[in-house]
Design goal:
about 120 residues; single chain; mainly alpha; rod-shaped; 3 helices
């Protein structure tokens, strides 16, 4: 049986490589990051950069949507107020169409309709 003279040096080299890998994996576990510098994994670093950019863009879209929703709620409130005022104007107009009103009543009704118009505008 023949013994390889490089066996011990190969074993030491393999142990050193295993120790280095163990240290790297321990560092990844403790930090929670598999890529701590660009040279660790350039492909993963590039993907992380693209994902970060996509997340920032999504955040911007969410903020824009929230602003639009706020504006729509404000518009809905304003339109609800207009509908209320128009309903009131219809009621006053029906009251004004009553043939038993005297001229002073008609002037008062006209004033009410003018006020309603001004509020709507």
């Amino acid at each position: 049986m023949r013994v390889d003279p490089n066996y011990v040096s190969g074993l030491v080299s393999s142990l050193g490589s295993s120790t280095l890998t163990e240290q790297q994996l321990s560092a990844e576990l403790s930090s929670g990051l598999s890529v701590t510098k660009l040279s660790d994994n350039p492909m993963a670093a590039g993907q992380a950069s693209l994902l970060g950019s996509a997340i920032n863009q999504d955040d911007s879209f969410v903020q824009t949507a929230a602003t639009a929703q706020s504006m729509m709620q404000l518009t809905d409130s304003a339109l609800g107020s207009v509908v209320t005022q128009l309903t009131s104007a219809i009621s006053v107009a029906v009251q004004g169409s009553n043939s038993t009103n005297d001229p002073t009543d008609n002037i008062a009704i006209s004033g009410q309709l003018t006020n309603i118009r001004d509020e709507v505008v």
